[in-house]
């Protein structure tokens, strides 16, 4: 009960005694449970972690100091081979390319998709389509892209598109592979064919060829002799061959097919003075300036059809496989970045626009800095992922280019279980991969801790 003072104010009441720690609390953890009880709950997870992570790492480290048989201690010889073997050095170089190119491109593409889909009416559907490859296994994606990268444009989608674009701007040759017959009228000059003798007006020239593919002659007309014109140089280009072998080389026989669309040039002193193209019956007509010239059939008439790019050749196999990886993982990056973008205060973006910034400046100076933590998560996650890349390389790269596309995870498999088995070297590669991954993981953990402290 409080007492009144002379001034009429009420004094403070009695101070409650300070609480003392309960004796029951002794020996208990912060969460109120006994330490041994917490350890008991953690024991299954620790046992699983030890069996699946700690023991394999420890045994791999131990095995890396022994030879292929596992019976002789070789010290650091296996690690020395990791840095001196040409195959492993190629794999290490390709891993550097993977770590730099694949995460950066996938993250950049995911950022672009995430930003642009905010302004698209069907943005959700677009995100679904981009993310769908994540539902496909690496094995299935490898088979898909192995077929896409086929060299034959009739089978490989990539080369079919590439050849279609090329042929749009550069017309294919009409008769690839055709060459002069045994008549001796034409002789090779580089990739072109030139008459041995000069031609005269009023005397039709005969330019016999063989080797034209039957498919290129489908629907071709029968060749006819050119008319003799006194003030023109005329002639015929035809396939000097009749089924059954009854034709005479250099003579236009009945039933022989005309070669239409062949360019014929008249050349004097190394200079083209006239040119013409053969008609459906194989004949051509040149002006009087061609009199006394040699006739030349340019190489463009007989060059092989453009067959596209050797995507899986030694020089392009690694970029081609990286393209397949980006196709799969750009959707993953897009979803994470879109989630981060949803948390960006729209007031900041609108304030930047009110201050006169255009969309590119808003993106570069406001959006990207605000998304830096999310971009860091995506980038580090993909870096760890590509250090372990194996499936795509093993499936997409053909045997002829597998050595050029080699990566450390694939070399680990080949060294441990391939034709030249040496599990000591394979274990050394595994430990080396672990050493490469650990710093990236530490950086990621530190960044996560900083984010929690904010």
UniProtKB/TrEMBL annotation:
Domain ABC transmembrane type-1 positions: 92-444
Start and end residues of each stretch annotated as Disordered: 1-27
Alphabetic keyword roster: Cell membrane, Membrane, Transmembrane, Transmembrane helix, Transport
Coiled-coil portions: none
Topology class, membrane: Multi-pass membrane protein
Family named by the database record: Belongs to the binding-protein-dependent transport system permease family.
Protein name as it appears in the record: ABC transporter permease subunit
Species: Streptomyces gamaensis
């Amino acid at each position: 009960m409080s007492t009144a003072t002379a001034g009429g104010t009420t004094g403070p009441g009695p101070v409650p005694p300070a609480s003392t720690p309960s004796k029951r609390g002794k020996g208990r953890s912060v969460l109120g449970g006994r330490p041994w009880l917490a350890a008991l709950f953690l024991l299954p997870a620790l046992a699983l972690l030890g069996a699946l992570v700690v023991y394999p790492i420890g045994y791999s480290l131990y095995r890396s100091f022994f030879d292929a048989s596992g019976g002789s201690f070789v010290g650091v010889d296996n690690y020395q081979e990791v840095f001196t073997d040409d195959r492993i050095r190629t794999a290490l170089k390709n891993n550097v390319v993977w770590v730099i190119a694949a995460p950066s491109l996938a993250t950049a593409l995911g950022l672009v998709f995430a930003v642009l889909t905010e302004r698209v009416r069907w943005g959700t559907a677009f995100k679904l389509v981009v993310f769908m490859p994540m539902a496909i296994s690496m094995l299935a994606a490898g088979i898909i892209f192995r077929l896409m990268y086929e060299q034959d444009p009739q089978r490989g989608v990539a080369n079919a598109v590439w050849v279609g674009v090329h042929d749009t701007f550069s017309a294919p040759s009409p008769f690839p592979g055709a060459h002069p017959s045994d008549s001796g009228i034409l002789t090779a000059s580089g990739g072109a064919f030139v008459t041995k003798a000069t031609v005269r007006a009023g005397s039709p020239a005969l330019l016999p060829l063989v080797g034209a593919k039957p498919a290129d002659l489908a629907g071709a007309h029968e060749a006819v002799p050119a008319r003799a014109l006194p003030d023109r140089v005329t002639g015929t280009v035809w396939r000097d061959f009749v089924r059954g072998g009854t034709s005479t080389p250099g003579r236009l026989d009945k039933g022989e097919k005309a070669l239409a669309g062949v360019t014929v040039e008249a050349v004097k002193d190394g200079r083209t003075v006239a040119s013409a193209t053969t008609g459906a019956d194989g004949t051509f007509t040149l002006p009087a300036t061609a009199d006394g010239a040699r006739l030349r059939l340019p190489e463009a008439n007989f060059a092989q059809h453009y067959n596209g790019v050797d995507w899986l050749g030694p020089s392009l196999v690694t970029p081609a496989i990286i393209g397949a990886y980006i196709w799969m993982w750009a959707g993953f990056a897009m979803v994470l970045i879109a989630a981060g973008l949803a948390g960006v205060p729209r007031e900041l973006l609108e304030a930047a626009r009110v201050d006169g910034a255009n969309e590119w400046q808003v993106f570069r100076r406001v959006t990207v800095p605000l998304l830096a933590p999310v971009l860091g998560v995506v980038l580090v996650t993909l870096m760890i992922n590509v250090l372990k890349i194996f499936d795509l390389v093993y499936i997409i790269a053909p045997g002829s280019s597998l050595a050029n596309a080699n990566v450390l995870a694939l070399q680990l498999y080949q060294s441990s279980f391939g034709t030249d088995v040496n599990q000591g070297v394979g274990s050394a590669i595994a430990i080396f991969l672990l050493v490469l991954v650990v710093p990236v993981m530490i950086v990621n953990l530190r960044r996560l801790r900083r984010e929690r402290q904010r």
